[in-house]
Amino acid sequence: MEYVTTVSWGNDSFAKGAYSHLAPGQCTRFAHAMAKPAGRLFFAGEDTAIVFSGMEGALESADRVVGEVIEVL
To answer: Could you tell me the domains of the chain?
Structure first.
């Protein structure tokens, strides 16, 4: 096997990172506030997930938001 390259998404001027990441302590302080609905506006996406990051986090948050919307309806 041959080394080809290394990619730093954090240094990519277009990507600015690979996934959302909270610093230590931020999750317990901000996570629930970030996902809290504002009137009829609901928030989903990996940055509002609790358990997973990336695509799995986006799906986790979508599942949560579907439940929130159903409760309102």
So the answer is: 19-72 (1.10.10.1620)
